[in-house]
Amino acid sequence: MSGRTRDRTCPERTCVGCRKRSAKTELLRTAVVGEECVPDPRGTLPGRGAYLHPDPACYDLAVRRRAFSRALRAQEPPGTAELLQWLRHAAQAETT
Ligand SMILES: [Zn+2]
């Protein structure tokens, strides 16, 4: 009965790592600030965003495929140190 409305209340994005589609709320938005790709969990940063599962495995895939530069239209591959730290933190918080 209400099966059709689910799509609308739940926008999907593609993870730049594993390329699977997920609900936007399950993905971490990242954006470029200067030359750094930074986590944007609140989705407040301006500019292009790339969506990623908050999972180091997806981060790894994205880095290896240079998906960040592509998704964010960066000339140079953006730095991802801050993003990696954020993900490690998130992963730790989940296992404890
Ligand atoms: Zn993923």
From TrEMBL:
Where does the UniProt annotation place the signal sequence? none
Extract the Pfam families matched here: YlxR
- The residue ranges of the YlxR domain are 13-84
Q: Which SUPFAM superfamilies match?
A: YlxR-like
The lineage's top-level taxon is: Bacteria
Q: What is this protein called?
A: YlxR family protein
Q: Which organism is it from?
A: Streptantibioticus silvisoli
Organism phylogeny: Bacteria, Bacillati, Actinomycetota, Actinomycetes, Kitasatosporales
